[in-house]
Amino acid sequence: MTAREKVIFEYSRAGRGALDQWPAPVAAAALGDLPAGLRRQRPPLLPEVGELEAVRHFTRLSQLNFSIDTHFYPLGSCTMKYNPKACNQYAMLPEFLARHPLAPESQGQGVLACLYELQEMLQAVSGMEGVALSPMAGAHGEFAGVAMIRAYHRARGDLKRNEIIVPEAAHGTNPATATMCGCVVREIPVTGSGDIDLEALKAVVGPQTAGIMLTNPSTLGVFERSIAAVARIVHEAGGLLYYDGANLNAILGMVRPGDMGFDVIHMNLHKTFSTPHGGGGPGAGAVGVGARLLPFLPVPVVGKAGERYRWLTEADLPQSIGRLSAFMGNTGVLLRAYIYMRMLGREGMRQVGEYATLNANYLLKCLQDAGFDAAYPQRRASHEFIVTLKRQARELNVTAMDFAKRLLDYGFHAPTTYFPLLVPECLLIEPTETETKDTLDAFVAAMVRIQGEAEHEPSRVTSAPHTMPVRRLDDVRAARQLDLTWKPTAQP
Amino acid sequence: MSKVPADLRYTKSHEWVRSLADGTVEIGITDHAQHALGDLVFVEVPEAGRSVKADEPCAVVESVKAASDVYAPLAGEITAGNPQLAAEPEVVNGDPYGAGWLMRLRPAPGALAAAALLSAAQYQQLLDSEGD
Prior knowledge:
Chain A is of the alpha/beta class and about 500 residues long. Chain A has 16 helices and 13 strands. In chain B, strand 1 (about 10) and strand 2 form a beta hairpin.
């Protein structure tokens, strides 16, 4: 994996294009009354390569992927777990793929049944009273959740509640969502052991509190032990509890957000329930709600009357926050989740949570035994944990980023770096339930070797990666100069 | 080791405050903060005329690692945001206590006395306890 693949334009030679496969030229007359100013004056700059060159180019690009199908990918907070191929296979059945979203309900009872049962299963696993599947990403689900919280307060005539409380360990999308929904964000600190600071929480709740957004286990990789007290304080103040499902994998089948006192949850089906993710979609951010928010679920929801399934719309849910996506959201992702849950069953679902947690705790213990510092050494890990390389940065001048880059040379995707923000020089490591002990041991061995290099040959680490097609990218320049257009230096 | 000039006052959230001769104050982020954030790629400063409450988020500093709010160390009215930073955010990294100032503010009556600001020694102590 060392060769850099050129931009396809760099392979281009005038006249080499596979012209027979071009669309037929459009006669000028066929342009009709399209104004002259809108007509293209020059042909578009397209690469001219033969079919074989095009195939090789894109195949080589695909071989550069560093993916869960090729490498261990312990990217904390992202749950980059293996997605069983069967989930993809069955979701791609031609009857699903070819179904037109506007086809009548009578001809779509099969897919509606799948979606209905998915709603029921997600409801059961989250401990909620109702589920809507249509939000198309995690942040979209968050938006739906906070919009429902706002709608709930508004429906009660309680118009002053516009503050959303967010712990500092929260996912960055939480404050963004609250702001998008027109709320004011109040941030509260966590204690040294990773739990929410209850005194700080008590100080910010009041008649202006719309709700609180939490992830449990938190982004610090620990279970929020005071969740019952948090729920009581927020509920007594009249606010609602929002559960960010980012870390649902840790507690799947073990404990339910509904039982912890949450009123609304979004679930990243693409993360926990078997859709490859990390490339910007497609995703699915199904939302589950407790009794108080049931009337406000986004439409459509699948309902069942007798043996017939049908779409529920605003006519059935007049207080709904409305429609958030065309049709049913990303149905392909929903079907993958349905198949995954059906394959696992109740017992398998519980094993996901158990193995994800076991793997994380095993890896944490091994790394600690090898001399690495846990950010919360007194706490047991959930499905992920944080190692801090503060000591290495101070004593050896080798940073968490250097370790992360060097891991690539050893065949491991880097863990999440520098997140969460409140732990300096951190690696957030999430092995997931699908990795073997052998893989985890190999990761520890690589970390130990890198530590040795950092002590004896630090430049090897600080200049890594050495075996990737590109070395360190200039991420500062990339962020400051957003123009990514390739331009020819000289026409060949 | 981060620089902590003795003549400034500080907040726990890593802002510094400098009293100017005309009664206004200049505000920025500390050397420790710019170092922790890394190379800044975007800075948003408040416009003159805006009233801010103490602890209100009033500026944003964004690096390749993270975007962070900057909190008003005390209540008052913004008299200026540093116009240079929109085009040259890196100035905050290079000169956090000088050319990299973020905003100037006219304190609300009594706000300067009421603000719980740290001395340089106290802020240094805070950094030591955080393991800087």
